[in-house]
Amino acid sequence: MRADSDFQPRLGRIRAQGGKASKRYLARLYTAMEKARPGVFARRGRTRFMGAQIGRGAGLGAAFIANGRAFARQHMRRAAVKIRSVRLGANGLGKARAHLRYIQRDGAEKDGAPGKLYGPDRDVADGKAFLEEGRGDRHQFRIILSPEDAGELDDLNSYTRAVMAAAERDLGTRLDWVAVNHHDTDHPHVHIVLRGRDDQGRDLVIARDYITHGFRKRAEEIATLELGPRRDLDIARGRHAEIDKERFTSLDRKLCAAAMDGVVAPSHGRTAYERFQTNLLLARLRTLEKMRLAAREKDGWRLAPDLEGTLREAGRRGDVIRSMGAAMGLQFEPAKLREFGAAGSPPRIVGRVVGEGAADDAHDKRFLALDGADGNQWHVAFDGASGTAPPEGAIIEASLASAASRKSDRTIAEIAARHDGMYSDALHARHDPSASPEYRLAHKRRLEALRRAGIGERLADGTWRIPADFLERTAQFEAAKAPAQMRTLSWVGLDALATAPVRTFLDEAIDKGEDSRGALGFGGALQKALATRRNWLLAQGLAQAKENGFSIDQDKLAARGAAAMNAHAETLGRKLGKTFVPTEDGETIKGRFTERLDLPAGRFAVLEKSKEFTLVPWRPVMEARRGRLIEGVMERGRVNWNFGRTRSRPGR
After folding, report:
1. Is residue 550 within 8 Å of residue 543, measured between CB atoms?
2. Residue ranges of the MobA/VirD2-like nuclease domain (predicted)?
3. Whole-model pTM?
């Protein structure tokens, strides 16, 4: 035997799995098999309790997982569903009210009108009553329902009601919800707010499997019933359209699932359908090769380790370009687009607001489109409450939040530094024996989130390869997620500032000897405004040109500003038919907040009484109390408001 072959089998005990090397090999084998046929080759050993099937709809959710690939899913109409469970806590009513205002924002309807709130049995729902009924709820669910063919549906309201009625049957309880349709993006979608109570008044707990699969399955079924199944030709066209997309597609998902150690070799196929699929994958691989995300090898194609993260980032970048184009219109120049907070972004920018739009509907985030003083066009994430965004023409300064990695990132980096750049659950347990399984699981979830951003690599055996610059990249990742810190330099346009009889941010720039950062676009306009401002101050006797600089007489300018404010107040008094009453330090201020004014001196709130009114500096926190009676004390030019103790009385 030994002369004919070097192979000599070594028989072990029955059902023995061997040592560590064998177990690692088996783990890689099962991982590859599971990628090829998800759910079929999953190991049946003891698994840690995850709580995925706790709550209503657990059985259906598990059935959807098990049978999801048994049906001809490619013929189903597709739908995307995002669901968040939001704990309301002590300030829950305020957060819920803010979210409801956000989804009813201006421009949500087809005609540009504000979003219309509707419910299970009425086309006009009472948002205040809905919030009042849910005042004591522990949590609520916020759902974004986006059928792929929403434009072909006759009525989104009826479709949403059918989906929620199916969910009621699945969950075995009546659901209390309101919804708003949005038509202000490329894909019409629905925002649903679902109370966290069942019809018996208990906390509504929905199984994770149903949240992950159940809602989407029902949404796809109902869209298919209404529009009919997708034709083979439509499916083929849809798949073919994915070949050149600069985003993560279903073709990429198949390539990643079929890859062994990063290499994929599409089979030729025996049937016409299999050959069609192979041709699609090969065409996609050639596109990825042009993007430097795949390379040909002798045995197939090697995929880039960060393929998914890179393509998802490219898709997000495409969404940013489309949203900026919608916000800026003909002014938008993609070559000048920059994202504030991205790699290479300066720590501070100044720009003019050109437009705004939705940045992340799932988290109620908006963005501002800025014409920067440096000649670029900036996309700046804005995390303010509804109604607090600076208007078009306003000038703002955005600065980056301090970059800092998380404590979990530092733990991962410390473990990786001691094990040649590798991290795993076993290494973590050995490093810190007191760390619980749940604590270690949180670190793995963190790594999954970072992997999707292109930071770190997960290997087939479950270990992670941690890059040498891990902490620097995670700090940048955190800084990019944090909203920019914004300061409004002027609530009015630049044209109104050059000759404004009040102190403006132009005067601050003159005092500091600053100049514009560019000669194009807003930068050029800012240069001209600064020159005009200097000349105007000299002509008005409010400044002097000296050998060592330019000196502004602050007292004279302040007196001129006070006179200008009185003039504005008199004009407003004639309009309101009321007497203006100025405020002084230490004085208690009380009145109904009715409107706000944007002036060269800043943004002011109008507080009215029966026969008089006053002007006070506006603050974002006031916006939620518009139309209500508020009270505070003026201290050093600003008001300390007593919102918690304010009570509104009828007739005031």
Report:
1. yes
2. 138-203
3. 0.69
